Amino acid sequence: SWLQYARLDDHMGSILRADALAHPENAEEKFAKAADLKVPAALAVDSVRHAIGDADARMRWATHVSARLLAGAFAVAWEWGNTTLVSEL
Fold first, then answer.
1. DSSP string covering 47-74, please?
2. For the chain, first and last CA: distance in Å?
3. Distance of CA 53 to the CA centre of its chain
4. Which of 19, 73, 64 minimizes the C-alpha distance to 41?
5. Hey, what long-range contacts does 79-88 have (CB within 8 A, 24 or more apart)?
6. Cβ-defined contacts of 9-18 (< 8 Å, 24+)
7. Which residues constitute the domain of residue 49?
């Protein structure tokens, strides 16, 4: 399903983020690639929340599904030093 693909992109972005933190010599390129994977995945997953009518279900989706992906996207943008992306997120 699309959610599994989004989670896979998020996971691949996490691997790139970890590599960038471990090897800072070409971290900027790795952070950029990580953001290219993590940000669209996080936004796609979070967009579902706005279509959920039931408040409890919306809260569960936000808490258990989209929050982790959004946090990862913020972390990559912050560690990359991309303040424009941070402000847009």
1. HHHTT--SHHHHHHHIIIIIHHHHHHHH
2. 25
3. 24
4. 73
5. 79/17, 79/20, 79/21, 79/31, 80/20, 80/27, 80/28, 80/31, 80/32, 80/34, 80/35, 82/31, 82/35, 85/35, 85/39
6. 9/37, 9/38, 9/40, 9/41, 10/37, 10/38, 10/41, 10/42, 10/68, 10/69, 10/72, 12/37, 13/37, 13/38, 13/41, 13/72, 13/76, 14/38, 14/72, 17/72, 17/75, 17/76, 17/79
7. 2-88
Q: What is the pLDDT of residues 30-42, one digit of tens each?
A: 999 999 999 999 9
Q: Is the pTM of this model over 0.85?
A: yes
Cα dihedral across residues 85, 83, 34, 45: positive or negative: negative
Q: What mean pLDDT comes out for the span 38-63?
A: 95
Number of domains in the chain: 1
